[in-house]
Design brief:
Layout (H helix, E strand, L loop, with lengths): L1 H12 L9 E4 L2 E4 L4 E2 L1 E5 L11 H14 L3 E4 L9 H9 L3 E5 L16 H14 L5 E8 L11 H17 L7 E6 L5 H7 L12 E5 L9 H4 L1 H8 L6 E6 L11 H5 L8 E6 L12 E2 L13 E2 L2 E2 L5 E2 L3 H11 L79 H11 L1
Parallel strand pairs: 4-5, 4-11, 5-6, 6-7, 7-8, 8-9, 9-10, 10-11
Antiparallel strand pairs: 1-2, 2-3, 12-15, 13-14
Helix pairs in contact: 1-2, 2-3, 4-5, 5-11
GO biological process, one term: fungal-type cell wall (1->3)-beta-D-glucan biosynthetic process
Organism: Lasiosphaeris hirsuta
Subcellular location: Cell membrane
């Protein structure tokens, strides 16, 4: 695509341009450092499993086309903290695109059925933060993705909350800017309302997430605000204490995708409480959620670093029709102005009560003590039975890392710094 080629070259040459304004979370909204409310128009970006932010030329090609789409953010599920990300991050910065980075790695997930939070996990998460905190266009970090997908998984919630607490304490102790740290949840009706309240309850701002992302595929075109169930999502997000947004969305059944849900998300019904959405996903794969492809599907016998699962993972991005143009048209119409930070009162949002356990559903009873460094594991209530549900396209189950269990890290700033003094 000629336009993409020209834009990608321009983005590469603009790598040294002035950096984007930083973004912070205040109350239930995101604001740029110039005081403008920020709404996410994002796409999930996972070209390669290990790290898509290392090939500057590929980043430039993709960023150029994302810019024409109206994208202002990408979500990246895995990164290698030891790699050089300067060029890719500069390319996306020049295109006006922020990044949301998952901190967990392939062997450091918090496991849903046997949860623990140990020094190896903490160190690996912190290593990713150490690598990416310096970039102005880092919008936020996720401490987990869809860890809780059925009732017996809810016992992992205190470990998710402890990980956010300890990474926030580490961020502040290191003197990094207050990059928001949050969680990306599966949309499970009998668990999600309790989880979003639990991760933001307790009255201690150091122990709650800075934002809450939701992976929801409820709205499948053709649909509507009431029919899709978004009306219920909105009721449960009304005056939420931290920013809430769709960290994945874009149901492709029956297809094609019209993206009428974006009208609701950025319109009068939801825009006062929601901070935007991330569409799943950039590249075409077997699940057919892609907004672009990198050319015709390779021959079944083809192999190579740029081919995985029968689909090319690099090259010139070509829009998938009609999904790409449909989303572009919806985002072009979605122009919320929001509120200026100077006119926003953060105390207008509501603090949530910690949810009680429910029979056969949410198993954590109230504001249980979180795992602490050197202490024993949390002992939540465990009433009820498990119930299964389908996960979103990005859901991943990983084997437990083989290392010594420690039930958590200290919530206090001193404890975190003492640990890292020893570890380093």
């Amino acid at each position: 695509m000629k336009v993409s080629t020209c834009l990608s070259a321009a983005l590469l040459s603009a790598a040294a341009a002035k950096a984007l304004d930083t973004v912070s979370a205040v109350g239930n909204k995101f604001f740029t450092s110039n005081g403008t409310q920020f709404f996410i128009k994002g796409v999930a970006y996972q070209l390669t499993e290990d790290d898509p932010l290392v090939d500057a030329e590929q980043c430039a090609r993709d960023a150029a086309l994302m810019k024409t789409l109206g994208t202002n953010a990408i979500r990246v599920y895995h990164v290698d903290p030891k790699s050089d990300h300067d060029k890719c991050m500069s390319v996306f910065d020049a295109a006006g695109i922020y990044t949301l980075i998952d901190l967990d790695t392939f062997d450091t997930y918090i496991l849903p059925k046997t949860p623990y939070w140990n020094e190896t996990q903490f160190a690996r998460y912190a290593e990713v933060m150490d690598t990416f905190h310096k970039y102005n266009n880092v919008l936020g970090f996720f401490v987990g993705n869809e860890i809780i997908a059925q009732a017996d998984h809810s016992l992992a919630a205190p470990y998710i909350k402890a990980s956010a607490r300890d990474l926030k304490a580490y961020r502040d102790a290191k003197g990094y800017r207050p990059i928001p740290i949050g969680y990306s949840a599966a949309d499970i009706a009998e668990l999600r309302p309790m989880l979003q309240d639990y991760l933001t309850c307790g009255g201690n701002s150091s122990e709650i997430v800075d934002f809450f992302g939701l992976n929801s595929y409820q709205w499948c075109d053709p649909s509507a605000y009431e029919q899709s169930g978004y009306i219920n999502l909105q009721k449960q997000a009304k005056d939420f204490p931290v920013p809430i947004f769709f960290s994945e969305t874009g149901c492709n059944q029956p297809g094609p995708r019209i993206f009428d849900d974006q009208v609701a998300v950025f319109g009068d019904k939801m825009v006062n409480d929601w901070s935007g959405s991330i569409i799943y996903e950039w590249i075409e794969e077997a699940n057919e959620y892609g907004l672009i492809s990198y050319g015709p599907k390779p021959d079944a016998t083809a192999t190579g670093a740029d081919i995985k699962g029968g689909f090319s993972r690099a090259g010139t991005p070509t829009p998938v029709s009609p999904d790409f143009e449909n989303l572009k048209a919806q985002w072009a119409k979605a122009t919320p102005t929001g509120v200026a930070s100077a006119n926003y009162k953060a105390d207008s949002v509501s603090t949530r009560a910690c949810p009680a356990s429910t029979e056969g559903g949410w198993l954590v009873d109230g504001n249980v003590a979180l795992p602490t460094f050197g202490g024993g594991p949390v002992r939540p209530s465990a009433t009820g039975s498990a119930s299964g549900t389908a996960a979103s396209p990005s859901s991943t189950n990983n084997p437990a890392p083989a290392n010594r269990e420690i039930a958590g890290m200290s919530a206090g700033l001193v404890g975190v710094m003492l640990f890292f003094t020893f570890w380093l």
